[in-house]
Amino acid sequence: MGQGSNFRRRLKVFTVALTIYLDYKTIQKKDKWITVDKRNDLWEKAHERNANRLLSAIIELEGLWVKLGQYLSTRADVLPDAYIQLLKQLQDSLPPRPLSEVYQTIEKELGKPKSEIFTDFDETPLATASIAQVHRSRLKDGRDVVVKVQHKGIKDVILQDLKNARTIVEWIAWAEPQFDFSPVIDEWCNEAPRELDFNIEAENTRKVARNLNYRSRQSDSSTANYVDVLIPEVIQSAEKVLVLEYMDGVRLNDKAALEALGVDKQGLVESITRAYAHQIYIDGFFNGDPHPGNFLVSKEPPFRPVLLDFGLTKSISSNMKQALAKMFLASAEKDYAALLSAFTEMGLRLRLDVPEESMSAINMLFRQSTPAKESLENMKTLNKERESNMKSVKEKMQKYEKSAHRNPVDAFPSDAVIFMRVLNLLRGLSSLLDVHIVYLDIMRPFAESTLMAGNVRNELAENSGWIFDSPVHSQVETKLRHLLLELGRQQYITGIQVCAYKDGKVIIDTAAGILGKYDPRPVQPDSLFSVFSATKGVTAGLVHWMVDKGKFSLADIVANLWPDFAVNGKETCKVSHVLNHTAGLHNAMLDVIKEDPYLMCNWEESLKRVATAKPESAPGSEQKYHSLSFGWLCGGLIEQASGKKFQEILEEAFIRPLDINGELYIGIPPDNDTYVGDDPCLQDVDMDEAFQQLPIHKISIPHKLDCRVQTTVENCMWFDCSMQSYPMML
């Protein structure tokens, strides 16, 4: 067994780790001085040599290290093939324990000799793993079963290894603070002892079978979240012995046997992925150890996966289910706000707010799986991207933190540790079987079901809370709320905030719906979310304000107020043409975006560009939405007609009367110019594609007014609906 002393086991671990590390450092030195052909051979031999070292150490040490080896053997997407081929031996073929020890454990745990329980007991185990070995047997009543018997003394070894592992992790965290794996080892320390009680595993097995409707088979196979797997029935259990129904099948990692049977490997891994998506998002109770040794494939069509070994399971709360679902869907939708919200809800605290880096990490977690050879190439590319991203992160940490070497994660929830482990193991399965799995497609229906189950729209009624409970200020607000309720029933609105002033008084202040399609929290008057076309609403409002003040009229020629505008066929353009989107300048700023998107943050330069632009149609002849140019047209008109800077007029017309000083800026707030370079909307964007679909307007509103300015777009109200915007005439 190689139990030895704690010191001896620890010395062995450090010796092997140091030997492998120094071997690779030596290869790195030689790599620079040899040809490409010799280089590949050199690295392949090094991988094989070190994989053998690792395997030998694991077999000698056994215990927890076998679990680690089993995990590594599934990561064909990141480890060289030499490691995979050798370490996969650990999945089910460790040296067996003596039969005398096995029989002794059975008699002690079940209270009877083996001969009184079984008529037949196969002396050669079907599999021997880190904690137990499994024998095929037959009960007195004729049923074929498997008997899982725990290794003698393994509990003490596992607990000892956990202490050693914790010491190693603490040392790494001290030496390399950016590699702090404390959350992982903490979770292992909490969960590993539970694997040693087979009564717990028996109940876990029954619960997963019930959750997946395995016995009842009442699931609708036509639904997207249908699961079709096999789970053995529990016959009898004790702390160290478990008797289960025998299911005949081939190992998941036996590719030759799978091909001989004609198994659809793609469909097989998709079925397993659906089963885990159901366990995580629907049930909130899932197996945390899906390595290949814990699966069989039935030998009869339709060759269904058989789920085994529920010793390491995780139960998560309803709130955590929703947070994990939101994190998944935020990744799918590239929704930064929802992603950070999910982090907060699951208890993940970051020392540094870097949403683009967070999105990159989560996208990598849910990325499409690929066969092993492709995965290794993909990982090289991803590592290069990550190095570039981490350079940016470190620069920000140096600016905002005293030390750039701290782990950016301040708190990592244990539930998320197991969740990510499961996803990585599933990814390893697909790479091992050389199949492509699009996790975003397979898991989406399950994640959506979780979030939509708590969606207030599902039970929409006037007293359901869909309309936020706040005072009614006027009869028009009462009518508006009835209208919003009807629009909500028809699913035209996800969430909305409306505020209107008349003669300096609030006449409407209503909030309704939810924050997003995948964020079921209710919208409140002080909820913050991304806005669309806010600058249009503000600038159009200022133009109307100046008309009311008599500075100019809607029929005035723009060039008479703005002399530089009188070029390239715009001499007849009126103020009304600007406001009703008939100025012919709907694409006036598109070239600016293609040339340099950051020019949109240069107020003076943008005004010059729009003033000298050539209209695509005669002013007043054709109405087309001026998505990119509208704010600059109104802004230039306001400055030229007033002789003042735009911000001065903004303060005079809106900010001081509404007492919102410091809350509203058009452009970049003072002393915050660094926000421009950090804007995720302007990074890695295909401008030709992006600006044909959704225009971007730069507005920074640090407080609650963003929910108000979006309601004042000329004669329309605009509201955010799951990152899409829809006009509604008032």
How would you characterize the overall build of this protein?
This protein has 730 residues and is an alpha+beta fold. Helices cover 49% and strands 12% of the residues. It is built from 28 helices and 20 strands. Strands 1, 2, 3, 4, 5 and 6 form a six-stranded antiparallel sheet that branches. Strand 9 and strand 10 form a beta hairpin. Helix 1 (6-31) runs antiparallel to helix 2 (36-61), helix 2 (36-61) packs parallel to helix 4 and helix 19 packs parallel to helix 24 (630-642).
List keywords for this structure.
alpha+beta, 6-stranded antiparallel sheet, 3-stranded antiparallel sheet, 28 helices, 20 strands, 730 residues, 49% helix
Q: Tell me the Rg in angstroms.
A: 32 Å
| Molecular shape | elongated
Strand tally is: 20
Mean pLDDT over the full residue set: 78
| Distance between the ends | 78 Å
Query: Considering DSSP H and I runs of 4 or more, what fraction of the residues is helical?
Result: 40-55%
Structural class: alpha+beta
Largest sheet: 6 strands, antiparallel
Number of helices: 28
Instruction: Outline the low-pLDDT stretches.
Output: 389-394, 396-409, 671-730
**Strand percentage, roughly?**
5-15%
Would you kindly provide a brief summary of this structure?
By secondary structure, the chain is of the alpha+beta class.
SSE blueprint and pairings:
Elements: H1 6-31, H2 36-61, H3 64-73, H4 81-87, H5 99-110, H6 114-117, E1 118-121, E2 127-128, E3 132-139, E4 144-150, H7 154-175, H8 182-195, H9 198-211, E5 234-237, E6 241-245, E7 249-251, H10 255-261, H11 265-283, E8 285-287, E9 295-298, E10 305-307, E11 313-315, H12 318-333, H13 336-346, E12 349-350, H14 355-365, H15 372-400, E13 409-411, H16 414-432, H17 439-453, H18 475-489, E14 495-502, E15 505-516, E16 519-522, H19 534-548, H20 558-561, H21 575-579, H22 590-595, H23 603-611, H24 630-642, H25 646-658, E17 665-666, H26 674-678, H27 687-693, E18 699-700, H28 706-709, E19 716-721, E20 724-729
